[in-house]
Amino acid sequence: MTLFEVKAVTSLEKIFPSVNNDSPEQRYFSGARGEYAAFQLAMRSSGNWTIDMEMESAVSELITLHEVGLVPCTVPGNPADDFVLTHDAGLFPDPLPLLKEGKRLRLSPGHWHAVWVKVAIPEDFPAGKHKISFKFTIPKVDYFPWEPPEMNAEYDVEFEILDYKLPKQKLLNINWFHADCLMTHFHTEAWSSRHWEVLEKYMRSLFEHGGNVLLTPLWPLPLDVAIGHKRPDCQLLTVTERDGKYDFDFTLLKKWLDLARSIGFEYFEAPHLFSQWGAKSAPRVIVNGESRFGWECAANSEEYRNCLTQLLPQLTAFFDREGLHGKLFFHISDEPPLAFLENYRYAASVVKPLVGDYPVIDALSDVDFFKTGAIAEPIPATPKFADFEQFDLKRRWVYYCGDYEKGVPNRQFGLPSMRNRVFGILAYVHKIDGFLHWGFNFYFSQNSVNWYHDVWKDPTGGNGFTGGGPFNVYPGEDGPVDSLHHEVFREGLQDMRACTLLEELSSREEVMKLLHEGLTEPLSLTCYPRSTKWLLDVRSRLDNAILEKLHK
Question: Which of the following CATH numbers is that of domain 172-483: 1.10.10, 3.20.20, 3.40.50, 3.30.70?
Answer without folding.
Answer: 3.20.20
